[in-house]
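Re: the 173-residue chain
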Amino acid sequence: EQELTELTTPAIGHDWSESPVWTWAADHSSATATFICQNDSNHVETPDVTVTSKIIKEATCTMEGEKTYIATVTFNSKDYTDTKTEVISATGHTFGEWITVKSPNCTDKGSQQRTCSACGFKETKELNAKGHDWQADYTVDKEATCTEAGSKSIHCNNCDAVKDSTVIPATGH
């Protein structure tokens, strides 16, 4: 009878990948670092990852900003990092109320202005002239006398403009 001999092969040990496979959350708030054994891909390690972020460039009313996320992990006494950068949308202006700078009148345009409270940018818009508001009836501008003619006209309710000036004949003696 032959005697069975048990042979023991020493374990070859793990041969971890040189760098992890990084997987980021959609909002970059977290990440995982997966190390895979080159000798047996069924052996994986996912040590705890720390994610920090910093603003590289602040967004302004009209310019985009930039934020960087940094994932850090320590594995087998070695530190590994990965970064993701995202664009921060411009904030857009924060305007106050419209303030009348110049009131329009019957014939001249006016303007209004509003100011961004964040950056001080001023936006101006034009106001159309109002146009005349003509009275329905004639106004006597000068009474006729026995020897002198008079006059009457249609007046604007808002300014000194007149139209349709008409002579009133002298009344005679």
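The two ends are 166 Å apart (CA to CA).
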